[in-house]
Write a structure and sequence with these properties.
Strand content: under 5%
Number of strands: 0
CATH class: Mainly Alpha
Distance between the termini: 92 Å
CATH architecture: Up-down Bundle
Radius of gyration: 23 Å
Mean pLDDT: 88
CATH topology: Growth Hormone, Chain: A
Number of helices: 5
Order of helices and strands: HHHHH
Shape: globular
Largest sheet: none
Structural class: mainly alpha
Low-confidence stretches: none
Number of domains: 1
Amino acid sequence: MAVPVAATVLGGGAVAVMIACSVIAQITGHGRPSSAVQTVGLCLLATGLILLAVAGAVSSLAVLLVATSFAGVGQGLVFLAGITEVTAAAPPERRADVLSSFYVIVYLGVGLPVIGVGFLATAIGLLHSVQYFALAVAALCLALTITLAYRNRQARLTACDRPAQAEPDPHEQEGAPR
């Protein structure tokens, strides 16, 4: 069965909107704290995925475009935060190896679920497969957001509990009699 040209253009346009939003988000998010970028990105990605499920249910082009915009910005911010964290954690002499591994994991994380949705679509139909997948990933994004918020809060509390280290007196020389 041939796919109508309008459906192909619509699908390509939605992907283009998502990629453009992702690129813009990465450019505007650059240099901001990765924990904040990651939290905002996960929330926006979850929102976009929920709206994607709704767009399919109500057959709305407007909701689809809003969904792809939110999902694109969210994906871009999450990717930016991830690559920022990985780059900061990697030893300089191993940075290329670590970044290569990061990209392999990201591409597997993007590609394998799509194959799974394709298999699921043969059993329950494409619309329902995409909706279930979108809602499941949105739930994972929100769970990860809560986990990260808890971790960041614990790190802040731990930092506040540490006793302040006394500054050495610059006039006092080490080893000199007092």
